Amino acid sequence: MIDEDEIARIFRDEYGRAVSVLTRSFGDLDLAEDAVQEAFAAAVQRWPTDGIPPSPAGWIITTARNRAIDRLRREAQRDSKHAQAAALLNQLGPSTSSGTLADEEEGPVSDDRLRLIFTCCHPALGAPAQVALTLRLLGGLSTPEIARALLVPEATMAQRIVRAKGKIKGARIPYRIPADADLPDRLRAVLAVIYLIFNEGYLASSGDRLVRDDQAVEAIRLGRLLLELMPDEPEVRGLLALMLLTQARRPARMTATGELVPLADQDRDRWDRQLIMEGQQLVQDCIRRNQPGPYQLQAAINAAHVDATRVADTDWAQIRQLYDQLYALNPTPMVGLNRAIAVAEIDGPQAALDAVEETGNRPVSRRMEQGSLVGSHLFHAVRADLLRRLGRTDEALAAYDQAIELADNQAERDHLVRRRAELG
Amino acid sequence: MTRYLISIFQPSAATQPSAEELTKIMADVDAVNTEIKNAGAWVFAGGLDDPSTATVVTTSNGEPVLIDGPYVELKEYLGGFTLIDVDDLDAALHWARRLHGAIGLPMEVRPLYNEF
C-alpha cells in the first residue's frame, strides 16, 4: 500500500529538483512549475495502483518533461509566433523520445537546485520576493502556505511571486550560479534567505504557535544541500551548524502545555544529541579553517551553550569573547543585546544594563534591522531581567509591561507575564 | 541577446561638477564606453540637455498642443542613456555598475520589450 504521506514526502523532497531540471531544459519557470505539478497530479492517480516506480524522481522529471513538450507543441500549433517554441521542440524532441532518464540521473542534478536558489536570490529581486520564490520553487510550498508562514495576505503573496517570476523572465535574470567574483554578494543573500526561513520556522514571529517545525526542517535541508554543493564556503558550514544546534534544543523549548522554557531552565536531557554532535563537528571544522564570519560565530556561541551539561557549567567567558567578535563584525542592535546577556554573566547586571541602554540609544541605520530596538519586546525583556537582578523592582515591572505589550507571539507573551507575576 | 536601456538620472538642481571634475568623469565614461564597444555590446549612447530645454507634445480638445517644459516636474530627470545588447541581466548590470562607477549618478537598467 502506498499512503499519501509517502507521495507527499516524495513531493517535498523532489519538487525543487524537478523544477530545477525542467527550468534548465525549457528556460521558463512557469512552464517548469506547471509541468512538475501536473506530473505529481498524475503520480497521485497512478502510483497507488501501479506502485511507486524504482526512481520516483526520474519518473516525475520524465513525465513533467513530456507534459511541458505537449504544452509547447499545442502552443506552437495555436500561435505561429511561437517559432522559438517549435525550434526548442526540435532540439528537445529526439533526446526525450530516446529517453534521457539515464542522463538525468548521472548529470549534475544537484547543481540545478543550487542554480535555482541563486536565481531566486538574485540581488535584482527584493528580499521578500527572494524568500517567497525560494520557498515556492525549491520547497514546493503553495502560495497560501507561504503567505501564512510569512504573515502576508494571500493575495499580496500571489502578486509578489507572479511579479518576481515575471521579472526573472522579462529582465532575463540568468538561470545560473554566478561567477566566482559575484559569489560572495550572492551567497550572502542565499544564506540570509535560508536563515530567515529557519527563524520563521523556529520562532514564529507572531501567532499562537511558538514553532513551525516543517519550515525549520526545510531550511536545514536547504542548508545541507548548499554545503554539499559549496563545501569550501565556511559561512555555509557555519549557517548549517547554527541551525542544527538551535534545532537540537527544540524539544526542550516548550512544556507539554506549550509554555516557553528559557535556555537556563531547559531539561538538557531532552536536547537532540545527534544534531548537537553534527553541529559541533561543523563548528570544529570552521575553527580549523579560521575564517570567522557571522554565522560561524553564532554557531560557535550555540556550541558553547550546548557544551555545558549543566547550566552552571556554561563557559560565559568564551561566549562573551565570541559575542565581542560578532559585534565587531556585525554591530547590529540585536547582537549588542545578546552580547549584553553574556556581559551580565561575567561583569554583573549593572555592566550589562549599561551596555543594553547604550545599544538601545544607538540610532538604527541598517536597512535590514527592523525598526528601532526600543520597539522590540526583547530589548525590554532583557532590561526587565537585569533590573530585577539589580533589585530595582518598580523599574523591572515597568519594563516587563512594555515587553508584554510589544510581544506578538502568544507563547512569548505568556512567558513574560509569568516572569512579571513572579516579581510580585 | 537582449537590448537593455541604462537610464542615467540626475538631480534637477544639480550643482554642476567643476570643469576639472567633469573632464575626469568624461574620460572615465569614455574608457567604459570603449570597453563596452570592445565587448561587442555597444548600441548607442547619448546625454540629454537640461530639462528646461524640453517641450511636451500632447492633445487638448482633440487638437495637438505644445507645452513648454518637461512632462512631469521632478526632483530627478533622465540625464542620459546608454543602449547595450548583451546576453542577460547580469551582463547588463556589469556595464551599469561600471558606468555608475564613472559617473556616480543613479541609473535604471531595463530590458527593451521583445517577443522573441
UniProtKB/TrEMBL annotation, chain A:
Residues 186-285 form the DUF6596 domain. SUPFAM superfamilies: Sigma2 domain of RNA polymerase sigma factors, Sigma3 and sigma4 domains of RNA polymerase sigma factors, TPR-like. Residues 11-76 form the RNA polymerase sigma-70 region domain. One of its GO terms (molecular function) is DNA binding. The keyword Nucleotidyltransferase does not apply. Keywords: Sigma factor, Transcription, Transcription regulation. Residues 117-167 form the RNA polymerase sigma factor 70 region 4 type domain. The keyword Transport does not apply. It holds the Pfam family Sigma70_r2. One of its GO terms (biological process) is DNA-templated transcription initiation. It comes from the Bacteria. Signal peptide: none annotated. Belongs to the sigma-70 factor family. ECF subfamily. This is RNA polymerase sigma factor.
UniProtKB/TrEMBL annotation, chain B:
Residues 16-98 form the YCII-related domain. It comes from the Bacteria. InterPro entries: Dimeric_a/b-barrel, YCII. Pfam families: YCII (PF03795). Belongs to the YciI family. This is YCII-related domain-containing protein. It comes from Microlunatus elymi.
